[in-house]
Design goal:
By secondary structure, this protein is mainly beta. Helices cover 8% and strands 28% of the residues. The chain is built from one helix and nine strands. Strands 1, 2, 5, 7 and 9 form a five-stranded mixed sheet that branches. Strands 4-3-6-8 form a four-stranded antiparallel sheet, with no helix packed on it. A hairpin with a 2-residue loop joins strand 1 (11-14) and strand 2. The chain is globular and about 55 Å long.
Length: 158
């Protein structure tokens, strides 16, 4: 299993805050139900992150990372595998741990997530992948007016 170098008294450092260890499994979701069943094997060598550090899963697909009261855990999709998607085809590759929810602000933010689960498990299913692909990357364009939206639409997107 992945070893944490600076664990003592059940805590370790995440940035400057005190954090605790979170754990889970990346597994082959054979029946596509999103739940780790007894017959579903872990996947070795998959990267999982807490936004500050990375862990690599062991032979049983297990990982361990630090967390605090505002951590997002995510799996890095390996080649030949896919994460589940929601009804809008948005990949579901993360778990948000925010027990108190978002701080009051102009917009609602996140509801409290409650306590950390005993295991944060990431299901993956096999998929065929080509050796090449095409992608368009679009940054935060910061259009300030409808005129600039038109420039973006006609000069860049078309």
């Amino acid at each position: 299993m992945l070893k944490l170098a600076s664990v003592f008294a059940g805590t370790l450092a995440l940035g400057s805050a005190t954090a605790w260890a979170a754990q889970g499994t990346v597994f082959h979701d054979l029946n596509w139900n999103g739940i780790k069943d007894d017959d579903e094997p872990g996947i070795e060598g998959v990267r999982v992150s807490n936004q500050a550090d990375f862990a690599v899963t062991d032979a049983e697909g297990r990982w361990t990372l630090a967390h605090d009261e505002d951590t997002i855990f995510f799996v890095v999709k390996p080649r030949g595998w896919m994460t589940p998607v929601d009804e809008n085809q948005i990949p579901q590759f993360y778990y948000i741990h925010k027990p108190a929810g978002s701080k009051p602000a102009r917009f609602k933010g996140l509801d409290p997530t409650g306590p950390l689960p005993d295991s944060i498990d990431f299901p993956l299913t096999k998929q065929e992948e080509k050796d090449t692909f095409k992608a368009i990357f679009f940054g935060d364009t910061q259009t300030r007016s409808n005129e600039e939206v038109d420039y973006l639409t006609h000069d860049v997107i078309e």
